[in-house]
Amino acid sequence: MKRKLLIPILVLMLVSISCNLSKEKLSTEEPTEPTRETVVQEPVDQPEPAEPVEPAAPVSEGSAATTIDEVQPAVFQLVATGTYNDIEQGLMLNSEWGGTGFFIHPSGIGVTNNHVVAGAAILKAYVNGETEPRNVRILGTSECADLAMVQVEGSDFAYLNWYEDEVKTGLDVYAAGFPLLEPEYNLTKGIISKTNADGQTSWSSMNFILGHDAKINPGNSGGPLVTTDGRVVGINYMTRSSYDQQFAIPASQAIPIVNQLRERQNVASLGLDGYAIVFGPNSEYPGIWVNSVTTGGVADKAGIKPGDIIHEVEDILVAVDGTMKDYCDILKSHDLSDELKVFVYRWETDELLEGSLNGERIAFWGYAGLAGIAEEWVDEGYTEDYSGEYVKNEAFRVEEFDGDTSWWTYFYFGEDYADFNVYQDYERMIFEINDDDTYVYLTYGEYYYDDVEISALVENRGANTNDISLICRYDENRGWYEFNIGSDGLYTAYLYDMNTGKYKEIGSGGSTRIKTGKEYNEYTMRCQGNNLTLWINGYETTSIRNNELKEGLIGIGVSSYYVTPVIAEFEYVNIFYP
Predict the structure, then answer these.
(1) How many CB atoms lie within 10 A of CB 278?
(2) N- or C-end of the chain: fewer Cβ atoms within 10 A?
């Protein structure tokens, strides 16, 4: 699957596009849907270095490379900043990711992958070892070919020519780029192993692609695959890491598309970064998940947002086979200015919307009733029973506060002798807080958990300004993870550091699923691996990543701000294996 390689700023699927870490379904050789992932979460094997070559004379400015040594100054690192909506990680604000590009003209015109630049509000390039970045403009994109044309600020750049001879298996090739977002130029060596590999994936659609064994990793996306004389055979964009297979877009397919992009003409592109998904008990809900949209593009003007799923185009179901083929065939059969009917599922609100590209903006059509099914597709903690309904895994610990509560221990932050009370009554755990800025927690001390899910049903019986907390991996020497959810639907994810005595914000946002006033709300927190996920009243709200804490206790909490009293009653707390 493909992913953008990210550097988290606000910390909020082995097939991958080669700019990202990957996860692969081992039962199939087809690429899975692309996502974007942080580099720091899991170690990735470093590529094997290319065999040493004799140094060559430096390439002169503004000239084409003629040897493998002259390739380096024509290859640049791209760093993008933007916002997108990932199906697993949720809305990612102000995130940075990266890839590779290469010049094809001394004026600064370069080539990279669409998935490297899509959704970028800011795009910078580091050229030939420079420590200061150059500004980059996007000239054109093709989401179906996963290609983009960019203009790097400056002139007289070294550049690469295309390899236009017949590509045969066994041809010596080198993969050039900047894997893992490291600033050092990297070169690996291999051969062409396939000249007619399947080009249908979940994020692009090409007649065929090239297979090779020059090792690539996250960050190589958009970089050139070159011959010993420095000519471009293909553009790297995907790896099946577990099988040690790498893939590149052939130059023969890229050249005609690049020539159009160079004239600022988008090709089979609506101005979005998307990928094909199929979910549901019988795979009956296919579509194109929209990671990001380009402001002013066709999709944006139609009202399509990140997190939407394009279900139909021109009354044709798209992504039925889990690839972009049908979707791209429709785009290739029309001009980009043609009006096309679209039917869209909005994941966040469970709404169905109908409208047109280059026509009437999409508008509400009805509700799909798929929220639980959609969550099950993402969430391994939900399973299907034989009635077709979706149910949570059975809790292994159900706390209804109707018996011994000696495993629960409280602590608090606030003024000395703060006015609060925590007690068990009427088969509930009740928090009463009468002072401002008071944070009261209960931890459950029977077990330490690494991967765990906790769910709590809470009734607000006081002033309508309070925060409910769920915590996991509490360690009295290190700290804990916490989702703090306000009665207005705003939430913050924290890492509390015992060493500094401070809360560190690792994510935030808001949900319209909260029930305000004196109402019941169910909150669920999952801590699994490096993922922290929050649900509010059954709707997944956010999922973020952090790898600092590995195990600890679970807990609950209530806090006050400027309006008191705060009265919150926990009817139950359930503990699940994820």
Answers:
(1) 18
(2) C
